[in-house]
Amino acid sequence: MANLFSALRREKNSINIPPVVVIGLGRFGASLAKELMEHGVEVLGIDADEKFVREHAAYLTEVVTADSTDSEALRQLGVDEVERVVLGIGTDLEASILTASNLVELGIKDIWAKADSDAHARILTQIGVQHVIRPERDTGRRVAHLLGGRFEDFAEIAVDYGVTVMSPPASASAGPVDLQKVWEEHHVQLISRCAGPGQWRPLADATQLTPRDLIAVAGSPADLEAFSQS
What we know:
By secondary structure, the chain is of the alpha/beta class.
């Protein structure tokens, strides 16, 4: 496997993990692979479509054309020697399931696979995939909470638990912040405050917030929505 990842060495890795294999270079796979590369992670991209391979050859460590449903092809590429594989095939259900099965049989310890439906996700989990990703569903949930205009950003990080960035509601900017009181009344946690570009700091008790500030807040989506209107 070393020969596939010899093209790129970085002095400073902000994501400090060994090389990653990304199978399927559509929008999801390509975006993820590029982000990994930008943070110092070496990436081997695999796709059955030569067009995608040509498009992404310039910015990935190595890109190859291969049929990922062929377990021997994956073995010849040394995929069985890596710790992490991301399976970005979503729309071709058969190819996704066969590839996932191959990865499990190859003994990959950490498999992340994209699913396009609940049934797809369930099958991948039953096969033995450790992490099933639902990007379209997750994006839909995120945008739903942004439509009201009160959230600058939103991410659901666990079941019924998310983190949002918002301007302080009237209840939080009426006087010095009492973190415990906010929790007791609104069931949300005030995490940090941004007073300017890149100026994020932990939010301390007795801080006086202004409408110009941004705050990071954690809680259930319903509680976050209610707090934003308080």
